[in-house]
Design a protein that fits this description.
The protein folds into two domains: 3-52 and 65-77 and 239-258, no CATH class; 86-220, no CATH class. The protein is built from two helices and 20 strands. The chain has helices at residues 3-27, 226-258; strands spanning 37-43, 46-50, 66-69, 72-79, 86-88, 95-98, 102-106, 112-115, 121-122, 128-129, 136-137, 147-151, 156-160, 168-172, 175-177, 185-188, 191-193, 202-204, 213-216, 218-220. The strands form eight sheets. Strands 7, 8, 11, 15 and 18 form a five-stranded antiparallel β-sheet that branches. Strand 16 and strand 17 (191-193) form a beta hairpin. It is elongated, with a radius of gyration of 27 Å. The model has no long low-confidence stretch (mean pLDDT 93).
Length: 262
């Protein structure tokens, strides 16, 4: 069987995976804090038919050899952590991170996950929580009948309590950084999980040790650029078609070989 059939088939599988990633990017174009992914490919093993550098005489050698590749495969989907645009919302519980860093979120099992989505809410206990109800870490509880919730750029949260005129500080937000944020695992719900590849999270107050600052009443939008993704989709589609054409051509060549003797 011709090698090109399997080589081209691997190309079709790879481009299908590419389209899957592009589709997910486009589906999340309006997801707060979403970071687009990129598909990385690598070529597969080669069969060496003639080794370069082989001696052909007393003082001569082959300058190049003959190697036949066996196709391509998807090797990684990498998150691109460029900053998205900021949208003013006027909501006092909305927060965006200008710069590097992640909010810390406490899960039901006590573990910590991470997010760039700052669309926070207040639960029945007054805690600042995500849209799924998971509390922000460190936990901050807003008292009843308080007003004028303010979050400074360095993460200090304060309110004015009922019957008072001076603001009272409720707590301090902390952000975390990772050596390799691309190594974080996406677990859905706009959350990310630490892995061995991401490195250990380093927590600090906003604006310290290279972490970004907090902007209240703003949200960070997705960093997906629709035009770029549409171009990526066209390129992937054409590459898929070209690989399918290679399979068709290989099939026609086999047909011609099979019909040599009749």
């Amino acid at each position: 069987m011709m090698r090109s059939l399997w080589t081209a088939a691997s190309g079709m599988v790879a481009q299908q995976a590419n389209i899957d990633v592009v589709s997910n990017n486009l589906a999340n174009v309006n997801t707060t804090g979403f970071k687009k992914s990129r598909t990385d490919f690598e070529d597969l093993m080669y069969q060496t038919m003639r080794q370069s550098g082989t001696a052909t005489g007393a003082d001569t050698m082959l300058p190049t050899g003959i190697q036949l590749g066996s196709g391509v495969r998807q090797v990684a989907t990498q998150k691109i952590y460029t900053e998205g645009s900021f949208q003013s919302t006027g909501n006092e519980l909305d927060m965006a991170i200008e710069g590097d860093g992640f909010f810390q979120i406490t899960m039901s099992d006590g573990t910590i996950n991470y997010t760039r989505d700052g669309a926070f809410k207040r639960d029945d206990q007054g805690r600042i929580v995500t849209s799924e109800g998971y509390p922000l870490e460190p936990a901050i509880t807003i008292p009843e009948n308080s007003s004028n919730l303010a979050v400074s750029s360095d993460g200090r949260v304060s309110v004015i309590l009922a019957g008072e005129t001076e603001a009272q500080e409720l707590g301090q937000l902390q952000l975390v950084k990772f050596v390799n944020p691309a190594g974080l695992d996406s677990v859905g719900h706009n959350l990310l999980k630490e892995t061995a590849a991401s490195g250990t999270p380093v927590a600090s107050d906003p604006g310290i040790d290279g972490t970004g600052t907090v902007i209240q009443k703003y949200l960070e939008l997705s960093n997906v650029q629709i035009v770029d993704e549409m171009v990526n989709m066209i390129v992937a589609q054409r590459a898929y078609e070209i690989n399918s054409k290679a399979i068709t051509t290989s099939d026609e060549m086999l047909e011609q070989a099979a019909n040599l003797k009749r």
